Amino acid sequence: MDNVAKACSQLEQSDARLTLLNLNCEFIGTPGVQKLAKSCHKCQVTSREIPIPHSPLAGLWLEANDVYPRGAEAVSQILQCSPELKYLYVSNNNFGNSGVAHLAHAASRQLDVCHIGDNKIDHIGARVIADVLLGEASVVRTLVLDGNNLGNEGATIIAEGLRKNKNLAKLDLRNNRIDKAGMLALLQVLKNDNMTLQYLMLQETDEGCSRHAQSPLDKSPRPRKQSNFDDCTCERCQILFQMDYFLAMNRAGRHSLADVMVPANLWPRILSNVSHSDPSLRYAMLSFYKPNIVPGHP
User: Fold this and answer.
1) Per-10-residue mean pLDDT for the chain, 298 residues long?
2) Which of 22, 66, 129, 205 has its Cβ near the most Cβ atoms within 10 Å?
3) Residue 242 to residue 219: CA distance in whole angstroms
4) What structural domains does the chain harbor?
């Protein structure tokens, strides 16, 4: 708790240098987060961009601190007092469905990155996530939900939220007991509705899967065997292979293709985002839309 006391003191003294606060694995519990929220209320930092008194926090790490729903409510209060806070990491706590409900509205209005993995969230909490964190007005760009209890029902609800979402670029749903039904719901949305999600992590494998994948979020230096989704014939990998195609389309700017009258001068920029290792995607886009790459030429 010494680090909490130090942070609270800095906030109450309106120390504008306290922009990044890392309290991971400090076991501060709900009382510690509540103390932090009270200190944020007392902070009197102002700036040219934000003339009203506010907390200077821009990034907050509270992972593995045994924080319960009341603590999640206090995190929401911290967000409200910290308009510059864009990066929040609160994985490995005990927020549960009610905790996510406390946090969602404040988070959706200002966070770029929101990590709420391993927080005992199930399909009930997934409804709040779909309606608020994935709502049309949400500004969240990266959402990590790994290690919860969403299951197929929760994944299907998340898929509903992705239908209208235009801002989320990265979504982590690993280790949520999502199998074929949930994956097909997500695939359908990527195929027909969502043109902005670029990365979707779903790393569980079937028992007979021959593929050993490494997530883009896994920074472990240990070498691992990797192969393409289409190298494996298991049902899960075949669905993932289809998902990967539409995600690659999104990374290449598929949303701009909603208007077939794409200006010719935009196509080089769009195609520059397509992986050179996957020329089939480039060919598919060119053969279907047949854009005039060079103005004045058919």
Assistant:
1) 92 96 96 97 93 96 97 98 97 97 97 98 97 96 97 97 95 95 96 93 68 48 47 81 88 68 62 59 55 46
2) 129
3) 25
4) 18-261 (3.80.10.10), 262-298 (no CATH)
